[in-house]
Amino acid sequence: MERAVPLAVPLGQTEVFQALQRLHMTIFSQSVSPCGKFLAAGNNYGQIAIFSLSAALSSEAKEESKKPVVTFQAHDGPVYSMVSTDRHLLSAGDGEVKAWLWAEMLKKGCKELWRRQPPYRTSLEVPEINALLLVPKENSLILAGGDCQLHTMDLETGTFTRVLRGHTDYIHCLALRERSPEVLSGGEDGAVRLWDLRTAKEVQTIEVYKHEECSRPHNGRWIGCLATDSDWMVCGGGPALTLWHLRSSTPTTIFPIRAPQKHVTFYQDLILSAGQGRCVNQWQLSGELKAQVPGSSPGLLSLSLNQQPAAPECKVLTAAGNSCRVDVFTNLGYRAFSLSF
Amino acid sequence: MGAVTDDSHSTVFPGARWMVLSSHRPTSLKPGGKPPSSQQVSNEVIRKRLLIDGDGAGDDRRINLLVKSFIKWCNSGSQEEGYSQYQRMLSTLSQCEFSMGKTLLVYDMNLREMENYEKIYKEIECSIAGAHEKIAECKKQILQAKRIRKNRQEYDALAKVIQHHPDRHETLKELEALGKELEHLSHIKESVEDKLELRRKQFHVLLSTIHELQQTLENDEKLSEVEEAQEASMETDPKP
């Protein structure tokens, strides 16, 4: 009787390298295409991968539909932040903003449309850009990051119009307050500053760590995530995740979670947050935890809700973080599947 | 083949009011020779007959028996036998008629069932469309309810904060009382200061008067000392 010898295929260098790369990958940012059918994810190697949500959500989805349609090297450093306008994808990480056309990206070998660098004070060290924010009313983009300033760039002309100074340490996150065009920025110095875009001045400062109810000195004072709903604001990070009433600058509700949160957003009547734990947390405004849905990454860094009206069948929540996988939640109660780099 | 009538007995029986359509071909087909279409046709016929009455224990057999008995009756001799055979044939005929009637009724019933199903199908389609609309309506209502809940929770959150601060009426009352006290105290202070001023002035006057008196007394003493000294020197001077 012959014993069948199993075929041993030696792993080549490239496969080992790719496997190691996937193991150590962190996905920092996500953005949904204007048509709602594609999702772009940017990782710490500077690559951007485009996933087809409509293919992965369709009824005859196979394993290949959960892989990216195209992956390309976008930046030299990590891609910390991405936003989409109605035709472009703007990505930023290592001090530069690059723009890509959504229609072109699906073909291989696409080049960036333009790249810009905001005017930094020192030319020696190029600080990273941590957050991008689109202001649709004046068609401009706000960048903030390592140089502790907010730069505004006009999207039509590409010039940098104003610089907002006030933070004493680098800025983590930005949020836009729709009604009065104000920008909120939160940073490592523990303060959330509100800037009026018309007068380019700081209107209000909330030093979160100074309030006893929410400060957690053992975690630090950094503000990792911000979200605003015009009258209310949620911020978290070192201090506890808290809901603030902006006009009176008072903390109204403190959400009882110990892990620092890295991304928070308002959705319908809930607040969704994700951070150091494995789960996406859903909170009611009263402070109760409505649900905690585990994802597949050990820590989550970004959440993205696809609410594009053009593709209601792709209305999903996607979460990504310290792994090469993007979890897709079709209904907020459970994780449907994961897309993978 | 058309109606079966036997010319030898030229009486048409009242029972025979239907035609025996016998498209029955002999089962043994001559091999070769026959064109394929007729074979196909005969296959079709066989299939149809099998479909209609495949088990061979029903109407087809009865009809065959009827035909055979008819032929036998035509060839029979005696009157009584003929009569009994005739009766038997009539009964068989009526049985066949009965089964035919039954089949017609079933056919009618099937047609009506089909119509009924069509109707039910349309109704179900309508109710599905209605349910879709209701679902859309309910989704809108859910969104509305969520917004309301969010507003209520925001209100609650603010209310909780406000509760921590004391009531406005009480604070106002306290403020009023404090204000009155303050006024009262300031009045007292003013009056005390006035008194102090007055006393100070009086003391000033007193002290200055004393001082003047002292000055005057000192001056007087000095004057009297000078006078005494002058007198003493005048007494010692005239002696030498």
TrEMBL record, chain A:
Which Gene Ontology cellular-component terms appear in the entry?
chromosome, telomeric region; nuclear speck; THO complex part of transcription export complex
Q: Name one GO biological process term.
A: mRNA export from nucleus
- Pfam families listed in its UniProt record: WD40
Q: Which UniProt keywords apply?
A: Apoptosis, Developmental protein, mRNA processing, mRNA splicing, mRNA transport, Nucleus, Phosphoprotein, Repeat, RNA-binding, Transport, WD repeat
Subcellular localization: Nucleus speckle
Q: Where are the WD repeats?
A: 164-205
Record's function text? Component of the THO subcomplex of the TREX complex which is thought to couple mRNA transcription, processing and nuclear export, and which specifically associates with spliced mRNA and not with unspliced pre-mRNA. Plays a key structural role in the oligomerization of the THO-DDX39B complex.
Entry similarity comment: Belongs to the WD repeat THOC6 family.
Q: What is this protein called?
A: WD repeat-containing protein 58
Q: Which organism is this entry from? A: Pan paniscus (Pygmy chimpanzee)
UniProtKB/TrEMBL annotation, chain B:
| A Pfam family per the record | THOC7
Q: Which UniProt keywords apply?
A: Coiled coil, Nucleus
Span of the secretion signal? none
What are the start and end residues of every segment in region (Disordered)? 218-240
Q: Identify the main location.
A: nucleus
Q: Does the keyword Ubl conjugation apply?
A: no
Q: Which residues cross the membrane?
A: none
Listed GO biological process terms: mRNA export from nucleus; mRNA processing
Where does this polypeptide localize? Nucleus
One of the record's GO cellular component terms = nuclear speck
General function of this protein: Component of the THO subcomplex of the TREX complex which is thought to couple mRNA transcription, processing and nuclear export, and which specifically associates with spliced mRNA and not with unspliced pre-mRNA. Required for efficient export of polyadenylated RNA. Plays a key structural role in the oligomerization of the THO-DDX39B complex.
**Family, similarity comment:** Belongs to the THOC7 family.
Q: What is this protein called?
A: THO complex subunit 7
- Organism of origin is Pan paniscus
